[in-house]
Design goal:
Elements lengths: L2 E5 L7 E8 L6 E4 L8 H10 L8 E5 L5 E9 L6 H14 L5 E5 L5 H14 L20 E5 L6 H25 L7 H14 L7 E6 L1 H6 L3 H7 L7 E7 L7 E7 L1 E5 L19 H15 L4 E12 L10 E4 L5 E4 L6 H14 L6 E6 L3 H7 L4 E5 L2 H14 L3 E3 L17 E2 L7 H10 L8 E5 L5 E2 L10 E2 L4 H10 L1
Parallel strand pairs: 1-7, 2-5, 2-6, 6-7, 10-12, 10-15, 11-12, 14-18, 15-19, 16-17
Antiparallel strand pairs: 2-3, 4-5, 8-9, 9-12, 13-14, 16-19, 20-21
Helix pairs in contact: 2-3, 3-4, 4-8, 7-9, 8-13, 11-13
The site of zinc ion has 5 residues, from strand 11.
Length: about 500
Amino acid sequence: MTTLKVSDGLVKDDHLVVGLVSTNTKGGIAIEAGDLAMDTKALVASLIEMGATGKVDEVTKMPGGPTRILVFTGLGAKSNAYSHESLRRAAGAASRSLAGNIGATFALPTRDIAGVSAVAEGAAIGAYVFNEFRGSTKNDHKVALKSANIYTNLSGKAEAKDAIKRAGIIAKYTHLVRDLVNTPPSHLTPDSFTKKLTASFKSAGGLKAGLKVTIWDEKQLKSQGFGGIIGVGQGSANPPRLMHISYTPKAKKTKRYAFVGKGITFDTGGLNLKAGLGMEAMKSDMSGAAAVCAATLAIAELGLPVAIECWAPLAENMPSDTATRPSDIITIFGGKTVEVLNPDAEGRLVLADALVKAQESKNKIDGIIDVATLTGAQVIALGTRTSAVMTNNQSFSDSFIAASKETGEQFWPMPLPIELRASLDSPVADLANIGDKNGGMLVAGLFLKDFVSDDLPWLHLDIAGPAYNEGKAHGYTPVGGTGVSMRSLVRLVEQA
Ligand code: BES
Ligand code: MN
Ligand code: ZN
């Protein structure tokens, strides 16, 4: 974990991070160092000579200045009001480039507490490496930047201290999601997922923080009628689990949300075996479960006054003699039957069980949100950096999208066209697990909608593309697990 601080006055760290912007189309550049006064003229001349342009994700290092090494991080075009996300990304790109170093001061154009918050988040979230499984090459790899010091004239304010404390918690749980996603299925099974979460549960404050964990094993799942989780998990030697984390805040009479996250620790496609090329990315098929669990722990550690019931249905989707066959009929918790025409459409099956279970809770819930790497169609529709939001309640969706905008996570509303629902009709069961190929993301959303009460505000977040970065690292986002949706869930709760 990177230590976060705020300060002004003398810069003591080895590295000083400042912004670099382009001022015109002819290669003009300027330095943006926020509240730090700096003589920039000579530096700009050198930077131009070095070919620096100030574009986003460009990081240029140079010895000298008020410190040992200056780090220029691109903010794009000059502006008098950089967006919080630009600051977050610029801080993140610098922070990534500083792996292996002890300390850096970040002097960026923050303007207000929200800006300080954004820089602190970017610096801390970007300070991430995943070297847990390197053996003989471990020493060849750098550790994340140890400490980030946010330079601001507001450093004396209590709000600045609160902002960096919050940023530290947000980064800690973003990193937890990434670690879980990056951990391969050899080391992350439904059972070990629950064990890793139980360890994090303690670090979030445990029972004292109002948290409680309950885990169902395969025997309990079977005897209690969780046909979706059992049906998906029965082909694997690593049996399925259902994990429930509840958070009850100290404050009485609060809102209560349910979170449900898809937790497929590996998705081979089952008997509908996926092609080998790219299958390794399916270790990320538990990103939704990781995000909702981490968000719940973050909400508890932040002590937010909203109760959370978090559900993670966990299973490994494998082909074997015990796997669910195409045409098998399973019974979802609560009694609805599903004809499994395609065992690769497994996420919706485990989610259906958990969605029904979540609504059975004695505690009245004000809203339910499921998060899932659910469809390849999501990636086709929105690409790899924008997630989809589907809903039965426009204003709930609007509040979520507004909250997500503040975090810099990109979400976009998608419809649930009722005419597509008929494609899920089955000649033999209550419904089938696949329907029309066209609009596959929406069809999956409509499947889930069948398991949610019409009068309960519900959001379905399809994060299939954004959960796992198979491209290049950018901003505060590394290659591999990204942690997406965790921050938006926390932000929504902060605003509830
Ligand atoms: N886990 C996949 C969806 C996915 C695809 C996530 C790409 C991340 C990247 C899901 O279980 C799946 O296999 N969905 C099928 C559904 C289809 C059979 C209706 C798909 O999208 O192809
Ligand atoms: Mn699948
Ligand atoms: Zn899947």
